[in-house]
Specification:
single chain, Multidrug-efflux Transporter Regulator, Chain: A, Domain 2, 2 domains, 181 residues, 3-stranded antiparallel sheet, mainly alpha
Length: 181
């Protein structure tokens, strides 16, 4: 006669080997609050409370098997679909899981489209596009536009005529400037 599953007694797991919730979050490359939201949403990883000495509150710890499974899932997700892997190369590649993917995505959003993606036939460029196009600072371009040294209009922000930017090498203010210290 085989015992019922409810009659089988299992010993409680050794919680001393389980990583703390903070260590688990670091292992996954996320914050502790993000881990809390993930646990609330999916129920993984399993959390237990490990008793501590000296009357301190019990410490939340995570099931190492669940953590290992989550780490593997995150690695697969990063390897399968890195959004900007073909356009952004890291000088020192780091396998930090989804954290790197999020950083690359954020940087790509901040930088905007590459210069080649800016329509080649656009007559006017925004201040940021003109700065990228010429390699000059935005402050200098605004100052030159205010002085009338470069073709620009004010249309909900400065817009610079592409032909005027191409002709900037003929500016008298650059020729007359003494760059020696």
């Amino acid at each position: 006669m085989t015992p019922e599953p409810s009659q089988i007694l299992t010993s409680p797991p050794d919680l001393s080997t389980w990583p703390s919730k903070l260590d688990a979050a670091r292992l996954l490359g996320i914050g502790e609050r993000t881990l809390d939201r993930q646990i609330a949403r999916t129920g993984a990883p399993e959390i237990r409370m490990r008793p501590r000495n000296n009357g301190r509150k019990p410490e939340p710890v995570c099931n190492p098997e669940d953590l290992q499974r989550l780490v593997e899932e995150r690695k697969r997700a990063v390897l399968m679909a890195p959004e900007f892997a073909s356009t952004v190369a890291l000088a020192h590649p780091v396998d930090d899981g989804p954290a790197i993917s999020r950083v690359i995505s954020a940087v790509a959003r901040i930088l905007g489209p590459p210069l080649e993606a800016i329509e080649a036939r656009a007559l006017f460029l925004t201040l940021k596009q003109a700065s990228i196009y010429t390699g000059l600072s935005m402050a200098l371009l605004v100052r030159l536009a205010q002085q009338g040294e470069v073709d620009a209009i004010k249309d909900n922000g400065w817009k610079f005529r592409r032909a005027g930017l191409d002709a900037m090498n003929e500016l008298k203010s650059f020729e007359d400037t003494d760059f020696e210290a």
